[in-house]
Amino acid sequence: MGADGTTGRIHDALRATVRNANGRDPMASAGILDAQSVKGADTVGVDSRGYDAGKKTNGRKRHLIVDITGMLIAVMVTAASMQDREGGTQVLAKVRMEMPSLAHVWTDGGYVGKLVEFARQRLPMTLDIVKKSRGQHTFEALPRRWVVERTWSWVVRCRSLGHDYERLPAHVEAMVKWAMIGLMTRRLAPSPGRRPWQPGTAE
After folding, report:
1. Of the residues 23, 56, 72, 159, which has the maximum number of CB atoms within 10 A of its CB?
2. 81: buried, middle or exposed (CB in 10 Å: 19+, 13-18, 0-12)?
3. Residue 194: inside a domain, yes or no?
4. Could you tell me which residue, 133 or 147, shows the higher pLDDT?
5. Do 79 and 50 contact (CB within 8 A), yes or no?
6. How far out from the chain centre does Cα 22 lie?
7. Within 10 A of 3 (CB to CB), how many other CB atoms are there?
8. Which residues pair with 66 in a beta bridge?
9. What CATH number is attached to the domain comprising 57?
10. How far apart are alpha carbons 164 and 152 in whole angstroms?
11. Residue 203 has what pLDDT?
């Protein structure tokens, strides 16, 4: 599934084209980081699965960095037991190599602590924590954070990504990229006809 890097090259070329079509530099300077724990099927090996006590999920965790339009920059799949801060350290280091232009990243309160200092000193990169409003107990779209939440919804529309069935984390990473490849190709070459959100024309 793209072990030679073909999937990544196709994905990155399409992302650059989409960003250029939107009047943006192909190399992003800002992004949003988030993690999602997903239940693992019996096909997920014990060597790459774990238990996320916070989400009560036995499986794997997907660490995602997207640009401010929601396009995928980097994905990394680990055992669900990995702490967000540890996974964040690894995926930020990875994205720094793949997209050195990235200088500012928004994320949530799960990443507070040493990761902020690590990003500032070692990468260097500014990590901006977007916190919930005091007393918030219901869902609320937070500034910047809603962008990555929307990307998660795009990804899990691919039914095979609603759970984790793959033996290898690399296969899941490739499938996430293929989900985004499909989304980007539809944006660049939409099928003819009225979009569902567009008003119809009176007969």
Report:
1. 72
2. middle
3. no
4. 147
5. yes
6. 20
7. 10
8. 32, 72
9. 3.30.420.10
10. 14
11. 47
